[in-house]
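Complex record, two chains
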Amino acid sequence: FQVMRLLILSLLFVSTFAWFYGRDEPDRWSVGGVWPLPQKIIYGSKNRTLTYDKIGIDLGDRKDCDVLLSMADNYMNKWLFPYPVEMKTGGTEDFIITVTVKEECPSGPPVHGSSEEYLLRVSLSEAVINAQTVWGALRAMESLSHLVFYDQKSQEYKIRTVEIFDKPRFPVRGIMIDTSRHFLSLNVIKRQLEIMSMNKMNVLHWHLVDSESFPYTSDKFPELHGVGAYSPRHVYSREDIAEVIAFARLRGIRVIPEFDLPGHTSSWKGRKGFLTECFDEKGEETFLPNLVDPINEANFDFISEFLEEVTETFPDQFLHLGGDEVNDFIVECWVRNKKIRKFMEEKGFGNDTILLENYFFEKLFAIVEKLKLKRKPIFWQEVFDNNIPDPNSIIHIWKGNTHEEIYEQVKNITSKNFPVIISACWYLNYIKYGADWRDEISGTAPSNSRYYYCDPTNFNGTDAQKNLVLGGIAAIWGELVDNTNIEARLWPRASAAAERLWSPAEKTQRAEDAWPRMHELRCRLVSRGYRIQPNNNPDFCPFEFDEPPATKSEL
Amino acid sequence: FQVMRLLILSLLFVSTFAWFYGRDEPDRWSVGGVWPLPQKIIYGSKNRTLTYDKIGIDLGDRKDCDVLLSMADNYMNKWLFPYPVEMKTGGTEDFIITVTVKEECPSGPPVHGSSEEYLLRVSLSEAVINAQTVWGALRAMESLSHLVFYDQKSQEYKIRTVEIFDKPRFPVRGIMIDTSRHFLSLNVIKRQLEIMSMNKMNVLHWHLVDSESFPYTSDKFPELHGVGAYSPRHVYSREDIAEVIAFARLRGIRVIPEFDLPGHTSSWKGRKGFLTECFDEKGEETFLPNLVDPINEANFDFISEFLEEVTETFPDQFLHLGGDEVNDFIVECWVRNKKIRKFMEEKGFGNDTILLENYFFEKLFAIVEKLKLKRKPIFWQEVFDNNIPDPNSIIHIWKGNTHEEIYEQVKNITSKNFPVIISACWYLNYIKYGADWRDEISGTAPSNSRYYYCDPTNFNGTDAQKNLVLGGIAAIWGELVDNTNIEARLWPRASAAAERLWSPAEKTQRAEDAWPRMHELRCRLVSRGYRIQPNNNPDFCPFEFDEPPATKSEL
């Protein structure tokens, strides 16, 4: 195999010559471009034709590994050749993809920091994948699939020759879904997992429960979903969750559950005594309590037992326990509540509700500390901003009007030695009109657009601080999102975050350079059957997404 | 049949008791509510059980009418019973829907002003539909289908008893699609037609061609799509168009084509000499001409021949000829063009490009006047604002930052005796975060939200002026919309326009009153298989939309 420099520019880009606007380089897209951009990629000058009957995969010593078998099945039978064209056969030599993985086949999902590094060489005669772990092999195979393109002229599938060395910039690259405001079906969640893996994302942050509904089914405490779910149809059984975790694992994705405490808890009302009574300005009891009662000691036993079950359900070593927006309910539910006030006096907290919050969180930290299955807790940033997080905590940043404000927070929190995860740059539920992944959209906070340009380590700090930046999670809160629209709303906007979190910053400075590859990604995933919406103004894909036929009108 | 006043309120609304925010009345939705709200509706106090085997339809003298046969097929076999539940049979008397239509079965689509009036009576023993036209019968049947609900308690389909008299407030209630910026498949267009009919909308305004691509295939001038389409796959043959028109007809929908002239014409470049040369500030020729050359006399012969073909393709008596945003290109393509300047001098226009625009439009009016198949032209408002429209024209309003500005324009244009169609209130492509159909969303022009509150006749004017308001067309421009996302982005936001344009203003003053019905509509259409997105913050449907299963991960 000979490493060749890029010789022929026309191989890289296709021109359309159509009238477009709002773009520096309007009429090109990449051919065989890889998304997210690898750490190092050197294209050869030649392509080779691929035919269905001449392609094979060799899993070497790992022929029994379910992750690799699933990978081989998915890519060989679907993802490599997604276009609705007749597949040519014969007329060429065998093309074997040899996959070599150093570590044993893991029985569980990837863990934090699992290697995803890989080497990929594609020559005219073969492809070679070398990886430390099966997760690296999955990433390599996805890259390989991006090198495959359909040559409209010769009407053949081709693959670009290439040498790639690749590994992620950050260990946490995720999507947060919210199944409380609107329920999401297993099919829809799995589809997002598939698209995530096609963007080399590795974390599903599952915000399972919030004020509005409680779709998580606890075996120990069935009154929670019994009262708190939207309906008996709007629940995830523990088997459902196991199915999601297994599906995610086969795609190199961890599932981190969130149970938000002590606020956002209205839907826990099935548990008697768990929530305080809350009062409006006139002192009348409101019917929507939304804060845990911290003075009911039984609540901590309950949380402990509940979390023991949660850890048995979710194997990931991270456990998100929320902690956001307690302030929004504190006056109504704690300050105006006489029992709470009395308790605060007894404890010597005076009027300082922060001390009561700290009291709650300290007891929560102690619970986490004692869990049989050890977990590293994640908290939303308020627990850092207002309280005193357990030193073992990860802080999850969601606030900030500008990228600079967000970087300042990253700097501040990491200076106190807390690892951080950033979502503030990628609140994808905030939709606007325009190419918001790259352009600033007026009428919205600056941090709510230009997703591609948010770089979480872009602050003055030590290397140790920057190493505390674990990555980012693009959030799609569920207020206005359900099965009908989540997919097109997420993608390819979340792909911008995926590239930012995987690729070297210095090679991904300009959205203008990225979009021809993003366009190709979109069209590739559209042909794989996913609703990847246009997000760069007028364009087209060689093969468009389509719906099944509408009602037949012919009688 | 006895008309009964509403006796039992609990029949009307279902409560969910979940924690919601941002709503006056958070926890209710209608049961058997009709959208858009009929002119007059009086519910009975009782419901009757419907079973699949006991329901029948009697089309009376119109048993051979394809529109009614298609209707019977669609509703009896699909739309009346959309939920994924086991259907009970037997145990009740026959329930026959008797449909009586006065006018003969029409061979063509509905025409402007076709009656859509109907009477619908549902008693415990039968349903009776009386209508002037088949279009009225279609509207009645849709209303009837809204009276059907699934009773979760008894696990039965039921229908509400009711007496409805109904007719639309405005004759034009439409959706504008744009197939130039992004191509839309026939399946996707047909799905939108189905959802339109479920909202009693009756006009598809098809903005076929724009600067970006030319998907219309002309038999006489195949060089147009040959050069101007995105690809040979991105075109509508005349057979495709006939299929759309036939599909729309069976649902009571007219199809009005738009060919935008003289601007937005880059994609017509296949026709040599049709566009002027255009020049940038330095006098260099730009490669994206976007204005017709008005001094090339052959162009008018071409337009004439082209429009003859268009009128043979589209039977509707309205023909939209654009006329918008000529100003955007006039400096580049006319002012800086020496040949044009010379022509203007010769004609005595001096430097006044408006006179050249007028010259173009006068010749265009003359062409329309002489078409073999008579057409009423529609122009975007600039032709009124800047030029002198043919007195036969309809003016299409798309500008205005506030509802008041829009009403002022309606007042002004109707005072000059021009009929108007309003789109300015319903630019649905401008997405924002929130319940924009009813709430003002900051960071956007006020006219780009609160769709439900735009009332086109809300101006001081004579009855004659108000009668010139033909209705409205909700526009979903295609810059960021294609097959992947158009459906969820349109609906139910366009349903707000549908109710405004159909229902009496005085009964539809508050979005808070409307949303329980809109919620029920959303869930009904979701169960019919359409992607009707949530647009009222957290909620759920008894049966949610779902995707087909993702890739099987099991080997």
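Note: Chain B touches chain A through 78 residues (CB under 8 Å).
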